[in-house]
Amino acid sequence: MKTDNNIYERYNRQLILKEFGEPAQQKLLQAKVLVVGAGGLGCACLQYLAAAGLGSIGIIDNDKVALHNLHRQVLYTVNDIGLPKAEQAARALQQLNPDIDIRAFNERLTVLNAIGLFREYDIIIDGTDNFSSRYMINDACVLTGKPLIYGAVSKFEGQVAIFNCSIQHNEQPVNYRDLFPQPPAAGEIDNCAEAGVLGVLPGIIGTMQANETIKLLTGIGTALVNRLITFNALNNQLYELQLTPQNETRNLIPVDIAAFETTNYDWLCGVAGNNFEISTDEFDKLRKQDGVLLIDVREYDEEPAVDEFAHLRIPLAKLGKEFARTEKDTIILFCQTGKRSAIAAASLATAFGETKKIFSLAGGILNWKQKQPA
Amino acid sequence: MQVEVILFGQLTDITGREKILIANVADTDELVKAIEQQYPGMAGIKYVIAADKKLISKNTVINEKTELALLPPFSGG
Predict the structure, then answer these.
(1) The pLDDT value given to residue A247
(2) A vs B: CB pairs below 8 A
(3) Selected catalytic residue, list A43, A45, A141, A192
(4) A85: which of A105, A217, A290, A327 lies 20 to 30 Å off by Cα?
(5) End-to-end C-alpha distance for chain A, whole angstroms
(6) What does the alpha-carbon distance between residue B10 and residue A188 come to, in Å, rounded to a whole number?
(7) Residue among B73, B76, B77 whose CB faces A184 most closely
(8) Distance CA B69, CA B67 (A)
């Protein structure tokens, strides 16, 4: 459904801006941005980026549209309820602008897909709704050297900033951890689902993210590099904060991509639930890395035997006593179906605190064996 | 001496105010202690301190002209 791709007509009103013009339009058309999260922030940001002629847009979100999203997630209609947000957003945007390339990733951003995906784009836009994703995105942007357009909302207030971007060559870029080094504990800060949000607010903040993206790509105006703006929708107060790199911040970010891929951000952010669980794919990737200890927590006589990789067998009941000290900094537990290893993971995590990374194979060894080539 | 502190996000819910006045504090460490005394709900809450619109990372001397703000992280999207 391509139009005649007449950029002079479609983008006329911004082309005639002498500060913008055709050079800026060409920069936008050649740019690639990835929007993580197609929620309130993502919808607003995406709509203006697509309209402005951002040449290549990626959208990653594993959520589905719900009725309570519609008061702020304006790309969706009641007909989209129950359907994947990434795909429905892409469809709506493609109707708005068929001349640009839009890719939908109907999956969750994880430590295993983040790096590869980020490398395909020039700029990453954070429109997520939880701290685990925000810290993961920040760290992945630092490791891949990608500028991050940050936006976040709560009730009536929003924050916008550009991280990991230096305009001058010798300038050390600021990242999210220079502002908030460590994630808050679970439940310490409410999210939209708990605290509520005025529908128009993510619209304003998401549109500001689109504006900063366009400014950064085209070089017009002064982008919000190394500065944070907070906006209060109730009283229209804007507060601007100058940010500076902090020495200790670098130590909080995984040293390299291998370390990033074994970081459990859900756990760092104290998210309750099965936050130790890893899929069979993640399991296979992790178990081949150095510094990883694998433990089978089934009873000694339980079948099937596992001879595909080296591991210890310490039944759950004995884990506390027998398992004393290990030099390895990552421990992966597995059992028959993943239940006992999840219990073991929780108790080891309590014992080791943040000194070790603990994982449990979801679905257990039975599920893993099923997925092996015959 | 009295300083004015601007609050953001859920800090305004905890204190019931958008701005608070804190007396007899000479630096930001004393400020935090005084705030937690006056508003016990603020203890253990995560926020950063800005003095004159600059993020501060270590104890900083303040006076009545210092523009102080406390900002919590937001996660919503």
Answers:
(1) 81
(2) 94
(3) A192
(4) A217
(5) 45
(6) 10
(7) B73
(8) 7
- Rounded to the nearest 10 degrees, how much is the dihedral formed by the CA atoms of A344, A346, A352, A357? 90
Look at residue A38 and tell me whether its pLDDT is greater than 80.
yes
Distance CA A339, CA A362 (A): 8
DSSP one-letter string for A280-310: HHHHHHHHTSTTEEEEE-S-TTPSSP--SS-
Q: Is A165 a catalytic residue?
A: no
Asked whether residue A323 carries a pLDDT value surpassing 80, the answer given is no
A126 with B77: Cβ contact below 8 A: yes
B76 in contact with chain A, both atoms CB, cutoff 8 A: yes
Q: Do A241 and B69 touch (CB under 8 A)?
A: yes
Three-state SS at A331: strand
* A258-289 pLDDT per residue, tens: 989 988 887 666 654 446 889 898 899 999 98
Q: What number is the ipTM of this complex?
A: 0.93
pLDDT for A156 equals 95
Compute the distance between CA of residue A191 and CA of residue A203 in angstroms, rounded to an integer: 17
Which of these, A275, A255, A242, A254, lies nearest to A342 by C-alpha position?
A: A275
Q: What is the DSSP string of A82-98?
A: TSBHHHHHHHHHHHH-T
Phi-psi region of A48 (alpha: psi -120 to 50; beta: other; left: phi over 0): alpha
Return d(Cα A8, Cα B65) in angstroms, integer.
53
**DSSP class of A313:** E
Known active-site residue A269: no
